[in-house]
Write a structure and sequence with these properties.
Layout (H helix, E strand, L loop, with lengths): L12 E7 L3 H6 L3 H10 L8 E5 L5 E9 L1 H4 L16 E7 L6 H11 L14 E3 L7 H19 L7 H15 L2 E6 L11 H7 L7 E7 L5 E6 L1 E5 L8 H4 L7 H15 L5 E11 L11 E2 L7 E2 L7 H13 L5 E6 L3 H7 L4 E5 L2 H13 L4 E4 L16 E2 L8 H10 L8 E5 L3 E2 L9 E2 L4 H12 L2
Parallel strand pairs: 1-3, 1-4, 4-5, 8-10, 8-13, 9-10, 12-16, 13-17, 14-15
Antiparallel strand pairs: 2-3, 6-7, 7-10, 11-12, 14-17, 18-19
Length: 463
């Protein structure tokens, strides 16, 4: 399905959104054949149900979409999207029943419900399109859907076609569409005195494609926003090799990069009045004679030394060098996004995007924005007493504290050590994967956090 709304000249069918307790009242206003058809079908307005309404010759003249109860809707991000599979292919317009305050969210859910990943297998079937409901900004909704489509495609693409080289190509293509500038530091240049990113090099040096730092800039004026996305295109765990069952989804270990790329696309498409910088350390954590080892002490761009106690805790290493680099320009807001820890999934599950920040204004703006953006986030603490857990004694920092407690918090504390100049810093420890299909959210790669961030930016950066 194209990520766009239908035009009214497509002769859309009227779609009546029916709450379960409002069905009787709606039927009272219909003619006898319509009442008989609905009653005979057993349609009761349940969430996720749909019913086509036939005309005298049997061709559809409209449709009903069950909207359930408020309790049922609270369990889903995009409740109306659950009814779409029950509709006949074609174009629709909302005729009645959709609360105005829900129109933008449900319109976005409709666009996202058409997503399918078709790079390797042709996706057939006719589309179910929607005329933009009244009272929404249709182009903004389309931009949000386009950004999530890009993010999902990037995450869903296997590492055979989405290694560091391909990720760089995606950023260059994005920059070309919006007139942004891209610089890349790769391979042994990461170790030069002028461009020094030793931890990015160490993590990626064992792979077939050389590690690199991708640096995209857009915008000439306004506050500065720096996005840093973890671009580990595949993670074997390194010498601390993952078991097979844990390696199967590691194509998504660049989900942080994918989310920041999607967010960057939305910012540029909306032409927000700010200066945008996107930093992506793109590597593969592979196994070879060049792999970094447990027990190694790594230098970092910031000058802090890091003891390696687990080569499978590599994402924070590449992020640290990139964060230190971004921090040198003292941005007004710097955000890192990463599929960083299993501990975050244990804490909040796959549906919430946990984040860390000391910036109270940004935390408050996110809390305000997330419900309306249908993009739930959850604040986690930079808990100072745990700082000792990331200080091993032999080096400045430990990349993988023993014991397993507070793994997401200690990872966030580790990253915070590489910031300090930015006016505000926030870290998102996301999953970026939908484990099972939900309305508007196909199984697979997922955007988590960018819509809430996007809606919070005007308040935080005074845009």
């Amino acid at each position: 399905m194209p990520v766009s709304f239908a035009t009214p000249d497509t002769s859309p069918l009227p779609l009546y959104v029916i709450e379960a307790d409002a069905l009787a009242a709606w039927l009272d206003g219909q003619d006898a054949p319509t009442r008989a058809w609905v009653e005979a079908s057993g349609f009761a307005g349940g969430l996720g149900t749909a019913l086509m309404l036939p005309g005298p010759d049997g061709t559809p003249v409209g449709a009903l979409a069950g909207y359930g109860s408020s309790d049922a809707r609270a369990r889903h991000r995009f409740p109306l999207a659950g009814a779409i599979p029950g509709l006949a292919p074609g174009s629709y317009r909302i005729a009645s029943g959709l609360p105005p305050e829900c129109a933008a969210t449900e319109a976005l859910g409709w666009l996202l419900s058409g997503y399918s990943y078709g790079r390797y297998r042709e996706q057939g079937g006719r589309e179910r399109t929607l005329v933009a409901p009244e009272g929404i900004d249709p182009r903004r909704i389309e931009i949000l859907a386009e950004a999530e489509t890009l993010t999902r495609d990037l995450v869903n693409t296997p590492a055979s076609d989405m290694g560091p080289e391909a990720l760089e190509a995606e950023v260059r293509a994005l920059a070309g569409r919006f007139g942004a500038e891209v610089a890349v530091i790769a391979g042994e240049d990461l170790l030069s005195e002028k461009t020094y990113f030793p931890m990015i090099h160490a993590v990626g040096r064992a792979a077939g494609q050389v590690p690199r730092l991708i640096d995209m800039r857009w915008g000439r004026s306004g506050p500065m926003l720096t996005l840093v996305g973890k671009g580990v295109c595949f993670d074997t765990g390194g010498l601390n090799l993952k078991p097979g069952g844990s390696m199967g989804l590691m194509k998504k270990d660049m989900g942080g990069a994918a989310n920041t790329i999607g967010l960057a696309q939305a910012i540029m498409a909306l032409d927000l009045p700010l200066r945008l910088r996107l930093l992506i350390p793109a590597v593969e954590n592979s196994v070879s004679g060049h792999s970094f080892r447990p027990g190694d002490i790594l230098q970092s761009r910031k000058g802090l030394t890091v003891e390696i106690n687990n080569t499978d805790a590599e994402g924070r290493l590449v992020l640290a060098d990139a964060l230190a680099y971004g921090d040198e320009e003292t941005p007004d807001l710097m955000i890192s996004m990463a599929t960083l820890t299993g501990a975050a999934r244990v804490a909040v599950g796959p549906d919430l995007a946990p984040f860390y920040t000391d910036a109270e204004d940004f935390a408050g703006a996110l809390a305000d924005a997330a419900p309306g953006a249908a993009d739930p986030v959850w604040r986690m603490p930079f808990h100072a007493p745990y700082e000792a857990m990331i200080e091993p004694g032999i080096a400045d920092l430990d990349n993988a504290p023993s014991g397993g407690f507070a793994g997401s918090i200690t990872a966030a504390l580790f990253l915070r050590r590489f910031t300090g100049q930015a006016a505000r810093y926030a870290h998102f420890d996301i999953y970026s994967w939908q484990p099972k299909p939900e309305p508007g959210r196909a199984k697979g790669g997922l955007m988590q956090g960018p819509r809430a961030i996007l809606d919070a930016l005007p308040q935080v950066l005074d845009l």
